[in-house]
Amino acid sequence: MDIHDLKIFLTIAQEGSVSKASKILYMTPQGTSKVLKNLETEMGCQLFIRDKSGMQLTESGERFREYALKDVDDYYQVKKDILHIEQRQKKVVDLLSAYGILRLLTPDCLVAFKEKYPDIEFHYREYPDLPVEQLFAGNEGNVAFSIGDFDEHLYQVVPLETFPIRLLVNEKHPLAQKESVTIEDLQGEPMFIESSQFHIYHLIVEKCEKAGFEPDIIFQTSGFSLCHKMVKENKGISVAVDFIYDDMREEGMKLIPFSDGIYEWKACMLTRRDEEENEGVQCFRKHVQEWLQKIRSGEITR
């Protein structure tokens, strides 16, 4: 048996059906059944029994499943560990980034890095904030950009930039007359906001809950652009940060600060403290910090 056989067995156990497992695995039912039969022959036992509700694990099958789960998990962990060793030796930058941060740095930052260091292998993947954190915590990638506060015992954290989160409204909306707002001002207002996979969603929802109400979120999205569009049409309110608002600036909208606490979009660069950095990651960190300094000085326009 091999890891592929164990994955087939685990999929059958999860689905309770050879035919359902075959569809997920892109195999024929005959091929899936053959693997199962070979496993049962090798182990000298029946792994499943069939009843009206489908295929159920036998007692031996349950024990085999425990070992199969561990073996598959160990296999993929070893693959990740070896990948990190190879990346360190070969000067690889494997970047996981939350949406919005590339808008902060500008795409030219990555283009310039690849041109400056053609010998460094560079990979880039972009996700919402929370999937980036989950993937990075699971040993995916070797450097990450994300939003929020992070455990500095686990990660080396390099702050990039922090922006206040402000209320975004149409100039015709009654709240547009205020110089500042509190979270209570959001009560009963239809809101467009980034989804629960983003830090900004949880910050706003938690503040509303602490104030004793649930926000009237009528639509969640994967980016700021739809929020801006709906506010422009005066169909609701939203929240945004300055640099994205400036980048997408249109007439008829207004950003209003919150006056009742800290509302921040804090972008950070992360590496793992328990993982030796390769030369490529060190060069990338230095490049990003220098690039941001050029943006601040006006040498580079965002």
Task: Characterise the protein shown here.
- With 302 residues, this protein is α/β, with parallel strands linked by helices.
- It has 3 domains: 83 residues, Winged helix-like DNA-binding domain superfamily/Winged helix DNA-binding domain (Arc Repressor Mutant, subunit A); 92 residues, D-Maltodextrin-Binding Protein, domain 2 (3-Layer(aba) Sandwich); 103 residues, D-Maltodextrin-Binding Protein, domain 2, CATH 3.40.190.290.
- The chain is 45% helix and 24% strand.
- Strands 3, 4, 5, 6, 9, 10 and 11 form a 7-stranded mixed sheet that branches. A two-stranded antiparallel ribbon has the order 1-2.
- The model has no long low-confidence stretch (mean pLDDT 90).
Notable traits:
globular, 11 strands, LysR_HTH_N, D-Maltodextrin-Binding Protein, domain 2, Arc Repressor Mutant, subunit A, seven-stranded mixed beta sheet, alpha/beta, 11 helices, LysR family transcriptional regulator, 302 residues, 3 domains
